[in-house]
Amino acid sequence: MKPVAIFRHTATEGPGYLAEFLDERNIPWQLIAIDAGDAVPRNVSAYSGLVFMGGPMSANDDLPWIAKVGALIRDAVAKDVPLLGHCLGGQLISRALGGVVSRNPVKEIGWGEVRVSDNDIARGWFGNMQKFSAFHWHGETFTLPRGATHLLSSAYCANQAYAIGKHLALQCHVEMTAGMIASWCEVGLDEVVAGSSPAVQSVEEMQQQAVDRLPRLHSVADRLYGHWVKGLSA
Fold it and tell me: What is the pLDDT of residues 160-203, one digit of tens each?
């Protein structure tokens, strides 16, 4: 089986729980570390799927790799190679497919409830789940590209996830581990302290709530990732 390509855009936002999920199922994957200077592949021929992780930059930034990633995303859609985006990754997919990335009404940082949309596509991804507590760290949001089906929303962000066939884009984070949360709280402390949004938790709240909420989040990730890998090409 060809490996899944996982794009990392900053050192602290790696694949997290997704790597554990893939390793447990002997699904090969390859890290493409954009932050370390790795080149964006020109096409998807070497990969069974593409995953885009988060990052502090905007999908609208004039960075040399963003246009190349956009072209790769469109190549994947044309060739039916599954896409999976987390936060910035979901925004990159949206923008590449004609959606718009813009400032969210408020910043969301920390644990917050998301609700599953009432449609058959959402039930295919989430089963009978109606809501769960996701992890958030974003100040921007995406619109749904043409052909997308809405999957998730929160009180502070209308578009938390969408699907287009076998492609899944998330605004929220389901890939979190305890180590990632601790790391983000450290590097993002100034942003948290400066946050005046009702959707911004303190670093103490984030880490304390992780004890109870991470196991449930991992079960949600198992469901989503399990559905996504069914579409991987050989």
Answer: 999 999 999 999 999 999 999 999 999 999 999 887 788 999 99
Question: Tell me: the pLDDT tens digits for 83-113?
Answer: 999 999 999 999 999 999 999 999 999 999 9
pTM of the complete model: 0.97
CA 211 to CA 195: how far, in whole Å?
A: 23
Residue 28 to residue 145: CA distance in whole angstroms = 29
Q: Are 173 and 86 in contact (CB under 8 A)?
A: yes
Where do the domains of the chain lie? 4-229
Q: What is the CATH number of domain 4-229?
A: 3.40.50.880
Burial class (CB in 10 A: 0-12, 13-18, 19+), 123: middle
Nearest alpha carbon to residue 1 among 33, 34, 26, 35: 26
The helix-helix angle for 178-187 and 203-229 (nearest 10°) equals 130
> How is residue 221 written in tokens?
């990730």
Distance CA 53, CA 144 (A): 18
* CA 164/CA 161 separation, integer angstroms: 10
DSSP-derived pairing of the beta strands 161-164 and 131-142:
unpaired
Q: How far apart are CA 43 and CA 155, in angstroms?
A: 38
Chain centroid to CA 41: how far? Answer: 20
Report the C-alpha gap between 9 and 40 in whole angstroms: 11
Three-state SS at 197: coil
